[in-house]
């Protein structure tokens, strides 16, 4: 499970872990955005909250995630990103995992300062044609300003990357998600990674943590 504020690079690391370990990657943001795009009942509910930069309520998310965890594809493990976001969600997840006879191996916190988050998210540009095409005006600019390298789509500032919404997301993170750090620390599965490092260095740190966890599991600790 990946933890960290919006803009900490969780998504990038989740995708790398997915490739490195060949595990399904459940990014709640993507799952919810897909539901919004498809216009399902849950998607319509979720959209109202997301447009305001508010967190989507627990009951809307939990059913979607639980269904995924019970699938065949997740039988060897899975990567969670963006869920749980609150302590009640973490408790609901624990209950569900216990029911399924599963156990969380590690919670990895990618730690970055709020100033860094504002800097990173404020410069982010998303392709209108394909929201998985993401750029940054400073760190990863497109070849031609305002246009996607891959399909020429117009690059826009996504609603939840707008300044007021970023501030709202950070406030929500502080209030509801930061307590999760203590929650998983108490369970002895919290691991911290310095998110100010380059993506390659963050990835290397995460691999180191997972290697240690795996070794401890094999030794029956
Ligand atoms: Zn594109």
Q: Can you give me a brief rundown of this structure?
A:
The protein has helices at 10-21, 28-38, 41-52, 58-69, 87-99, 114-122, 163-186, 199-218, and strands spanning 2-3, 25-27, 79-81, 107-111, 124-127, 134-136, 155-156, 190-194.
What composes the largest sheet? 3 strands, parallel
Task: Give the CA-CA distance, first to last residue.
Answer: 20 Å
Query: How many strands?
Result: 8
Q: What portion of the residues fall into strands of 2 or more residues?
A: 5-15%
Summed over residues and divided by their number, the pLDDT gives a mean of 88
Question: What is the count of helical runs?
Answer: 8
Order of strands across the widest beta sheet? 1-4-8
Give the overall silhouette. globular
Question: What's the SSE pattern?
Answer: EHEHHHEHEHEEEHEH
Question: What compounds are bound to the protein?
Answer: zinc ion
Structural class: alpha/beta
The stretches of 5 or more residues where confidence is low (pLDDT under 50) are none
Residues in helices, as a percent range: 40-55%
Which radius of gyration do the C-alpha atoms yield?
A: 17 Å
């Amino acid at each position: 499970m990946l933890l960290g504020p919006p803009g900490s690079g969780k998504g990038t690391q989740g995708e790398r872990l997915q490739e490195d370990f060949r595990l399904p990657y459940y990014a709640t943001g993507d799952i919810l955005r897909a539901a919004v795009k498809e216009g399902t009942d849950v998607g319509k509910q979720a959209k109202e909250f997301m447009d305001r930069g508010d967190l989507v309520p627990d009951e809307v998310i939990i059913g979607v995630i639980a269904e995924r965890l019970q699938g065949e594809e997740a039988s060897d493990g899975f990567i969670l990103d963006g869920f749980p976001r609150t302590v009640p969600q973490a408790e609901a997840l624990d209950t569900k995992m216990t029911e399924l006879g599963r156990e969380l191996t590690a919670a990895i916190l990618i730690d970055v300062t709020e100033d860094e988050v504002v800097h990173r998210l404020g410069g982010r540009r998303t392709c209108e044609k394909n929201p998985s095409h993401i750029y940054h005006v400073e760190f990863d600019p497109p070849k031609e300003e305002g246009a996607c390298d891959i399909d020429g789509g117009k690059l826009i500032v996504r609603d939840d990357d707008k300044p007021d919404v970023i501030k709202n997301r950070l406030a929500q993170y502080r209030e509801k998600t930061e307590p999760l750090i203590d929650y998983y620390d108490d369970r002895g599965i919290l691991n911290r990674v310095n998110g100010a490092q380059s993506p390659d260095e963050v990835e290397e740190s995460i691999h180191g943590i997972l290697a240690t966890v795996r070794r401890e599991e094999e030794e029956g600790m």
